Amino acid sequence: MRLKIKQTNRLQLLASSLFTIVFLGLAYPTFAGDTVGLPAPTSDAESAFPAQKHFSPYAGRNFPTQVYWGDTHLHTGMSMDAGAFGARLLPEDAYRFARGEELTSSTGLRVKLDRPLDFLVVADHSDNMGFFPRLYEGDPESLADPTGKRWYEMIQAGGQEGVKAATEIIVAFSQGTFPEKLKSLPGSAAYQSAWEETIEAAEKYNEPGRFTAFIGYEWTSNTGGNNLHRVVIYRDGAEKAGRMEPYTTLKPLGSDNPRDLWKWLQSYQEKTGGRVLAIAHNGNLSNGIMFPIIESFTGKEIDLEYAQARSKWEPLYEVTQIKGDGETHPFLSPNDEFADYETWDQGNLDLSVVKENDMLRYEYARSALQIGLEMEKRLGINPYKFGMIGSTDSHTALATAGEDNFFGKHSGAEPGPKRWEHPMAQVGDKKYEGWSMVSSGYAAVWAKENTRAAIFDAMKRKETYATTGPRMIVRFFGGWDFTENDAYNRLPAQVGYTKGVPMGGDLSPNSGQKKPTFLVAARKDPQSGNLDRIQIVKGWLGADGKPREKVYNVAWSDDRKMDAEGKLPPVGNTVDVANAIWTNTIGAPELITVWEDPDFEPSLQAFYYARVIEIPTPRWTAYEAKRYGITMPAEVPM
């Protein structure tokens, strides 16, 4: 079984869920980056949204009242690795599935979401886009290359041979040994056709007000197997997105350096008048280079130019997905009892270099937020002041993050009686175990309407949170004047926007001696477990300049008593592993509280985020064992 956690924002505010994380920032006069759509809480506008004079509290509301659920990171058979793994579904299929249609998976299984999503980004790899369809169809030029012919034969054999082919393709790309004759480069007919198909699918299924189909791609910097991947998301439609083909890492047309990606994003906006952003993911597979102090490409400390560009282009971080949770690590947070949640820490992406403890600080979100405070002290700007989201990174074209409906990382790992024991991927004698895949995650966005513009703008202002799957509703606000009575208001957003700033925001300095107060509320997913607790995680730099952190339990279910160290007894466990069921006889359907930081020091900058945790529920491996009559080894979490 696994614990499910959500998180919220920082003094900077952050957000996410199974874990959900939400972020809020402190002691800054405005939001970081661009101010879009809604007014920022500046000294000229203390509240993000002014009070309205209406008898009906629901009339005239000019703040987001709806949370929209989506996946910002999904691959289809158009991606070179997904296709080799067996994915035959394409972008159109991905959008149809996310909208709630029932499909047949690439392995012939009928599949449908329990509830439709509100938005989706098909983010196929920009490198070699169009390569796999060409290889799969037996393109003569591809088969003329010995490696291409061998990969073709392995893929046609299917099953684990196809998985091996996909792994070889990934390793060849990572290590710079991908055959020149097989590359699908921008400017080629195959590449142009693939990008046009991607755009056309998004345009076809985008339906403002009902479902948002974003245009996007993944820029896949993976030099030496060290993951620096980013998903690029367009606010725009075909007319602008079609003017420039995606940026790749293949030189000389592209680059594996994030600085060059950011320059490309700037160039796109200048040439088209459009809007784009980038979202990094899987710092846990970067081997210490995702959130650097010393830049891996130069060997020098990051400078002001780097900090400004990253702050501008990367407002969010994908903190949870199939390849592990990225909030924190037990080595970094030894006093956090939930730090070892779905941890992936063997090495870099292709397992060519084993993980060392001194890499970890530069890989995880919590420590990155601390490093950001250090950078701001030196440079005057924080490159790592991000909000959080979750997404799947599924390579099946199926955005499944439910424990009871998990279709795996790739089509070679779709449901079956033996998928838990087959490696998700193997390189030599090193492998990712099939059972280690994580059924995670989704992005939650507070927006005024379900459109490309509204959701994109909410991402820019970081009014988002991450969930490992359950669709909990979370609100998180910071201010100086929240009182206990505010927690009894059935419209917490009305109070929150009037008296404070929402998740993703910065709380302006207070001239008096007040301590910051936080209004946080969470409601369970009606189709998942009750809530165990809400925690607020605080990070700051001490007077000595060293990073500090503390996890506070601020609201919890049942009649539990917190001890002198601030720890709570476990909520309990109703999971019947053998039958993959549980009961909601423990926990609470909703939690809400106002919390004041008892340890606040006005001279020290800090960030805060909320983490909302569910009661234990069955993991996907428990459902697998029940459905196929499997007895899992003791090492497999259930």
Tell me about the biggest sheet? 12 strands, mixed
Structural class: alpha+beta
Number of helices: 14
Please compute the radius of gyration using only Cα atoms.
23 Å
Number of strands: 26
Strand content: 15-25%
Low-confidence parts lasting 5 or more residues at pLDDT below 50?
1-19, 26-48
| Overall mean confidence score, pLDDT | 91
Helix content: 10-25%
Shape: globular
Cα separation of the termini = 4 Å
Structure description:
With 638 residues, this protein is α+β, with helices and mostly antiparallel strands. Helix 2 (91-98) runs parallel beside helix 7 (189-205). It is 22% helix and 22% strand. The chain contains 14 helices and 26 strands. The protein is globular, with a radius of gyration of 23 Å. The protein has helices at 80-85, 91-98, 131-136, 140-143, 146-157, 159-174, 189-205, 238-241, 258-272, 304-313, 365-379, 452-460, 492-499, 620-628, and strands at residues 2-7, 12-17, 19-26, 66-74, 103-104, 110-111, 119-122, 212-214, 216-219, 230-234, 276-281, 316-321, 324-325, 387-390, 425-427, 430-432, 442-447, 464-467, 473-479, 500-502, 506-507, 517-523, 531-541, 547-556, 590-596, 606-617. Strands 1, 2, 3, 4, 7, 8, 17, 18, 21, 23, 24 and 26 form a 12-stranded mixed beta sheet that branches.
